[in-house]
Sequence to fold (293 residues):
Amino acid sequence: MRKDLLMPCGILIIIFSLAFITPSNAATNWGVEADETYEYELKTLKMFGGSDLSSLLKENVSMTIIFTNFNSTGYTYDVYNSTGGVSTSSTNFVSTQVGEDVYTTPVGLPIVLPLEIGTIPDYLLYFGQIVNETTSILVLDDLLANITDFANVTYTDSHSILNENYLSLYFDMYAPEVNASILSGFIDPGDTGGLFIIPSNITNFQLNASIAFNATSGLFKSFTIKIRSLAEQAPGYLEPFDIDVVYGLYVPPPPYTPPPTTPEKTSYPWLISTTIAFVILGTVLARRRKRNR
Fold:
């Protein structure tokens, strides 16, 4: 073998040998790309079973997400609020201890989940299985962890459903009594404009939350909260205290397409035929008159 080929051949042999002894990793596959813009808005906000207040608060809590970079383990993005303020954040998918096992989970707000990453060929299915196995919704754990400081939680459960449209994560919780300060901490009085007041004593507290991700792109679609409970409005007087919240991706309405128009039927054909008939009739009458003279 020529000496000038020894070095390239040696390098190729090393590469091929490493390929056989090193497990192959699936390339990270993201369903969205950098520089894409997504808007999120408050779609529903109801309290005490009343009317929808989302239109009054929508501007305060809306946000725009622009992804700036994707890599093999996560992404960075800019968040623009309704006043034009911007902040930069990132989300990375790393090995995390969940219970007694280690899983690849998001650290940071999971606005989009990878379709495949590392040795995980279907991450949406994998992420849903984590929720089923650990009875933890993961992305809400930090938010819900403090509830136990304010309530005697007697039941929690979580599960996932993956179909051709969405990966949906569900969390259910029940507490006989709840200190209302936990809800007050979630709601900024400046955002509500004094539209409602959280009652002081809440019982029979049932919370159902869900998060949906698009099954094709992995993009966060919506977040919903439904609370059904009783509140003490006066000593010894309880009434339903219900909250419904839906926050999700803004989808512009389809462009307006005017309905097809049906050509108006005119009387012209009838008028023409009638005119011809009168002309013929007049001609016949004129000839008869000439014969009778």
In short: The longest strand covers residues 220-234. The CA atoms of residues 34 and 70 lie 7 Å apart.
